[in-house]
Amino acid sequence: MLVMFYDVVYARADTADDLKSGVKGMAVLFRNWMTTLLLSLITGITALLFVAGQSTRMSALFFQLSVTGPAVCLLTMITLLSNNSKSYAWYAGKCYVLAIASLLGGFAVEYYKTLVY
User: Residues 9, 2: contact at Cβ < 8 Å?
Assistant: First the structure.
């Protein structure tokens, strides 16, 4: 779902060209409901990570890093992109990288705990 989020965010920049050429991707299909689609994807990502953490009894640090971290970063990314400015787009890309780093950080902490204990 995270890859789908990334793909839709960056495909939305080409929506006008896709409409002209007849390409029927998610960005074209949901062009009038882009924010709703992206918020739905964030909700799905967050819910699945939460359920995975609960079912495997992950620590609170996992939930802070791997669940809350990506959700906050991706929400920030949507907010920045809604301004339709190229300078904001650069920061939005950094938010995506931070979301991935946060996600991996939570898993890394849990893995490290298994090595130490």
Answer: no
Alpha-carbon separation of residue 21 from 14, 15, 18, 33, 117 (angstroms): 11, 10, 5, 21, 57
57 occurs within a structural domain: yes
Contact 74, 45 (CB under 8 A): yes
Q: What angle do CA 18, 42, 90 make, to 5 degrees?
A: 60
What's the domain count of the chain? Answer: 1
Q: Tell me the pLDDT tens digit for each residue of 37-52.
A: 999 999 999 999 999 9
Tell me which residue of 66, 76, 67, 77 sits closest to 103, measured CA to CA: 66
